[in-house]
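[Solved] Which block belongs to which protein?

Original post:
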Amino acid sequence: MPIKMFLGSRRLKDGQNTTGGAAKAPPAAQLDLWGGIWLVVVLSSAQLVSQFLRSAVGVIAPNLVTELNISAAGLALLSSSFFLAFAIAQIPVGMLIDRFGPRRTMIWSTAIAVAGCIVFALGRDQNTLILGRVLMALGCSSFYVAPLAIYARWFKPKYFSTVVGAQLGLSGLGLLAATAPLALAAATIGWRAGFMIVAVLAALSGLIVLWWVRDDPPGAPKPEHKKESFRESLRGLLVVTRTPSFWPIFAMFVSNYAVVITILGLWGGPYLAHVYGYDLPTRGFYLLVLAISSTISVFVWGPADRLFGNYRTPVLLGAGMTLAMLIWLALAGKMNEGVLLVWFALYGLAASYAPVITAQGRALFPPQLVGRGLTLFNLATMGGVFLFQTAMGAVIEYMAPGQTVYPLAAYQVSFGVVAGLLALSIVCFLFARDPKLHS
């Protein structure tokens, strides 16, 4: 059944400005509703793997500390190396997407992700595990922005944040798998066997993308982008960075995902183990609550721009609530079990406004710069996780040097540092313009 929200690819009209502002293009082809749903499901399966891999260290972190005698700074490096490599990869990934297409870019990178899982599973020291994390990151580096580039061709702009919300919600199953299920696997078959299974699943996901996904909707004309030289591709990056409001929105991307994954993907597990004395299954349960809350909430935040009639209000609302939750955690001390559970649930709800800020960022760019624009924002996202996780590790290491069980005060100060970084991002974001919602 055709549905109007699916429009096919976008093409620039002859002579249209390419230096900034979203280009308006005529509709090309309509798409069957179920075809669009299947497209989102298939592309989400790749990001599901990425979500699992980037978060998987959190629940097994205390085990890695004990097994490999890793310090707090070393643990932060082990986890954050994924995000640093992921961030660095965004620039070439954006160029590859705009030059060769998002589907081909995803397929090439899947093999690297599979290799990373295998190296990590076989690693016997910290350096080998870091190498595995870096390979995972390089492989997963296209699994978010490449689908976004495809959605920009398949869906009307006004539905973009809703589709992004669906993508994040479905791929959030990877976050869920990295909590209680990973804890169960680690306690039964071991975390190494668990990562070998993920390698197989990642390979299957890549094969599905190869078989089912196309860059453009059925019947839609191909985008008339000329093949750019390497120098022209780099010049496009400069055009992106000079787009009005790019840097204020970039600053919000630095903190938006980092405030969630710093706790869910790394420091939440040690915090629950050291402050509350929780074992592996219990840690997995609390992190599962946060993951479920985050996964469900992105579906709610997805259409928030259309509900409020703008991007700015929901972004500030989500960021403000997240900041309040972090301040609460930093000042509260040790909570009782019920309050702690409520905090984890509410935190996921507050911090899941990524679909709105992503739609606001996408609205800044014309079609031929969407890949590079979104990958630069993703660079900010992953670079922010590296910054936040490393900052927490440095604070904890400073306050508890040489210890393997960290005190409550160290966590409180480090959570306060995270709150301060988020507040700085909010101040920068206030200088961003709010593009008109597309029809």
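(Second protein starts here: sequence line, then its structure tokens.)
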Amino acid sequence: METVLRSLSKDNGGSNTVLMVNKHGKGIALFDLDQTLIAWDTQLLFCNWVLRREPSRRAYLLLFLPFLVLARVLGSEGLKRIFLSFLWRMPRQRLEELVAEFVDYYVPREFYPSMLEVLAAEREKGRRLVLVSASPEFYARPLGEALGFDASYGTRVEFEDLMPLFPDFTGGNNKREVKVSRLLEEGEIREEGIQENSSGFSDSTVDLPMLRLCEEVMVVNPGAELQAIAEEEDWEVVCPERPFQSRGQMAWRCLKQMCGLDAGKGGL
């Protein structure tokens, strides 16, 4: 189906909003993953999963930790490439085995029950469910399949048989405007602009370019900046209960996950 443009008169002075009809001929629901559907950063969860099964890989910390002081220089993409050194020289087959175990364990036990209900409601509306994550696609896509998404897109990590020390990312780190570019590349949307019969879900201002594509927006446990934007835009705000009581407790668990030492719920 070709893109169709529809101009709708709004109540505020009769200005026009142009809606883009999705190529699939039905609505679309765009979901972030980390801290939107699940309370944690899944990159840390997966790191913890791998390190607890292959403890010798904790040696990656000797390389990764010194680079943390250069985080602003490296940017999120550069730092992510270095972080993935915990998978250095892992064969593709072994990686796929670990991903399968990881997905089987975490879906649905660690995901917000209320957000899984939202996902089911979007499915009932007939919208195409699309997961759009900055997490590596080699596990984001299987996670999405297990959750019932129609399509799942993450950061595409380049490797063949063995994971390189600092892998490159095809198309860049899948966040901010890159998410919109990926949706265009994959044909999920034909044009930028508000999509007809669409909804977007995220916890972060980083996803504003994606959220701006949507008629309906729900933000999850937003920080102060996103909360203010949500109030201004009249977006829905939801606050599912998190598995930690404070930022300090969350930071401690994240540190343990990065070191492969989190043996609590989800770390076994």
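Accepted answer:
You had them paired correctly. Confirming on the second one: The chain has ten helices and nine strands.
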